[in-house]
Amino acid sequence: MRVLAVNDISCVGKCSLTVALPVLSACGVTCDILPTALLSSHTGGFTGYTFLPLDEEMDKIAAHWETLGLKYDLIYSGYLGSRAQIAFVKDIKRRFLKEGGLFVVDPVLGDNFTFYKGFDASFAEEMLSLCAEADVIVPNETESYLLTGTRDFSAALAALHKVCPHPVITGAKTQDGYDIYYYDGGEKRLPIPCVEGSFHGAGDVFASALCGCLMRGLSLERALALTAEFCYRAILRTQKEVEDRRYGLNYEREILPFLTALEREAND
Ligand code: PXL
């Protein structure tokens, strides 16, 4: 199976492509990359970071790939720095996704109920139009709010299901933990125990692992179960081991149990 990850390279902070590549490779699928921007670090909590948009280069890369006749089983898009990049990803999907392939969109917009730097309501609207072309979307609780205007997760899920067959909302706070709300023939919930704190990069580990599981033939339900367990264990480890949460999840040593479960359930 061949996946294309369209996302930025944040040199420091374990998110986007520096997570997608190792996680998807570990899952046993080929991961090609289309970098959208080069940053010295991600934008979540760091100041003074460098930011080089790669629009012109993306255009040239795609033109070269066309000469190779490349096609992908799954395209996974993440952090996009501008409306033009959102439009470009729609074009990438048309040109490079196999017939019957999966388009997975992580609508990266914000956290803690605020936009990441550089994003606003009109950008969220544009992102919603990209979600409308996706088979699976994985907004966090903030992004589900920014996309739908409601903090009620059932209502947000229903609104997102109007545009995309399989919305998956992560991090919906409950009394004693979190629920993943997802749509799979109806509203479903997957409970996860509570870990106090905010964990940067968790969404990227989640989306990458989910894509890996789907590519190995797991149903959405099983893919979410394995992915949620992996992320939960990585978050617990991070809570113990990492003081500065801007540096992302210590997921690396939790990959083995995740892969063991994945190999047991893989259907390919
Ligand atoms: O983790 C999402 C993400 C990806 N890429 C960049 C970011 C963020 C979130 O802050 O800033 C550049």
* Rg, Å, rounded: 17 Å
- Number of alpha- plus pi-helical segments: 9
At the first level of CATH, the class is: Alpha Beta
* Major pleated sheet: 9 strands, mixed
Q: Would you list the SSEs in sequence order as H and E?
A: EHEEHEHEEEHEHHEEEHHH
Mean model confidence by pLDDT: 97
How would you characterize the overall build of this protein?
- With 268 residues, the protein is α/β, with parallel strands linked by helices.
- The protein has a single domain (2-267), classed as 3-Layer(aba) Sandwich (UDP-N-acetylmuramoyl-L-alanine:D-glutamate ligase), CATH 3.40.1190.
- 43% of the residues lie in helices and 24% in strands.
- It is built from nine helices and eleven strands.
- Strands 3-2-1-4-5-8-9-10-11 form a nine-stranded mixed β-sheet, sandwiched between helices. It has a two-stranded antiparallel ribbon with strand order 6-7.
- A hairpin with a 3-residue loop joins β10 (177-183) and β11.
- The longest helix is centred in the last third of the chain and has 22 residues, at 220-241.
- The site of 3-hydroxy-5-(hydroxymethyl)-2-methylisonicotinaldehyde has 14 residues, from β1 and α7.
